[in-house]
Amino acid sequence: MILHPSPHVHATRAHWDSATRHFLLDASDIGPLGRVYDNACDVGLTLVSQYGGRGQVVMVVNHEQRDGDGDLLYQDLVPADGRSRDFGVRIYND
User: Fold this and answer.
1) Are 77 and 22 in contact (CB under 8 A)?
2) Whole-angstrom Cα distance, residue 65 to residue 3?
3) What Cα–Cα distance (Å) separates residue 86 from each residue in 28, 40, 41, 51?
4) What is the rounded distance in angstroms from the CA atom of residue 65 to the CA atom of residue 78?
């Protein structure tokens, strides 16, 4: 089962990058990610639509980019429901 993890991030708090089709966030602005599935330890967040009637999308981490020293640069998140959507969330480790 998909949970609705905290943080709940309103899309207007993120910067939209139309070239990459990602909502961009800084980790320090949202806090720790929450558990997405009741039977696994995957983490993510709940993205709240900026348009009133469109609801929420649970996003799960599917990629981490690290530098040569192993320090986290950013995480990419995709919709947890597995449906193909043409957007994502990128969280920069600031």
Assistant:
1) no
2) 25
3) 26, 25, 25, 17
4) 15
Centre a 10 Å sphere on the Cβ of residue 39 and count the other Cβ atoms it contains: 7
Mean pLDDT per 10-residue interval, the chain, length 94 residues: 92 94 95 94 92 82 96 96 86 95
**Residue ranges per structural domain of the chain:** 8-92
Residue 69 backbone zone (phi > 0: left; psi -120 to 50: alpha; other: beta): alpha
pTM: 0.90
